[in-house]
């Protein structure tokens, strides 16, 4: 079993004993999403730690988008709940890349591919995505690639 999944389970037990409602609900949701991913497809399989991180990243993104939607609708109490769940998920994800690290990774990928101009953005993204997986939001990565390729 993946170590991260086991850590989620043990932290769920700890949170239940501490009566931490937000953490309990968030960890249950995360474990449910992981289980759903494991049974999807042809046969049941155990996810690796990297795959668990991908699932948690997807769940964190859902929380961020929901919080933005609730803020837009004036539902601040629901937005705060989503942000609290997002913070719990952040504890289990790798540290995010700083702007400087992302800039240097994108510059190296542009040098490696020899891309010149926004039309070759796809080539650069293919090189950068595996390097930043789980450590930077795709929107942030594509924005940086676009910025460097357009020369601004």
UniProtKB/TrEMBL annotation:
Q: Give the source's domain of life in one word.
A: Bacteria
Entries under Pfam families matching the protein: YqeY (PF09424)
Instruction: State the taxonomy lineage.
Output: Bacteria, Bacillati, Actinomycetota, Actinomycetes, Pseudonocardiales
Query: Which residue ranges does the record annotate as region Disordered?
Result: 59-78, 131-152
The family database entries (InterPro entries) matched by this protein are listed as:
Asn/Gln_tRNA_amidoTrase-B-like, GatB_Yqey_C_2, YqeY/Aim41, YqeY/Aim41_N
Compositionally biased spans, kind Basic and acidic residues? 136-152
Q: Which organism is it from?
A: Actinomycetospora straminea
Which Gene3D superfamilies does the UniProt entry name for this protein? Answer: 1.10.10.410, Uncharacterised protein YqeY/AIM41 PF09424, N-terminal domain
- Could you tell me what this protein is called? GatB/YqeY domain-containing protein
Q: Which PANTHER family match?
A: ALTERED INHERITANCE OF MITOCHONDRIA PROTEIN 41, MITOCHONDRIAL
């Amino acid at each position: 079993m993946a170590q991260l999944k086991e850590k989620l389970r043990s932290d769920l037990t700890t949170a239940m004993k501490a009566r931490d409602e937000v953490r309990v609900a968030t960890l249950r949701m995360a474990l449910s999403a992981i289980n759903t991913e494991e049974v999807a497809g042809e046969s049941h399989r155990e996810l690796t730690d990297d795959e668990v991180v991908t699932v948690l990243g997807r769940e964190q993104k859902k929380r961020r988008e929901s919080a933005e939607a609730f803020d837009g609708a004036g539902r601040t109490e629901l937005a705060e709940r989503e942000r609290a769940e997002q913070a719990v998920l952040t504890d289990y994800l790798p540290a995010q890349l700083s702007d400087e690290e992302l800039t240097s990774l994108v510059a190296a990928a542009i040098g490696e591919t020899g891309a010149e101009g926004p039309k070759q953005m796809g080539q650069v993204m293919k090189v950068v995505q595996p390097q930043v997986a789980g450590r930077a939001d795709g929107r942030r990565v594509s924005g940086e690639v676009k910025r460097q390729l357009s020369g601004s």
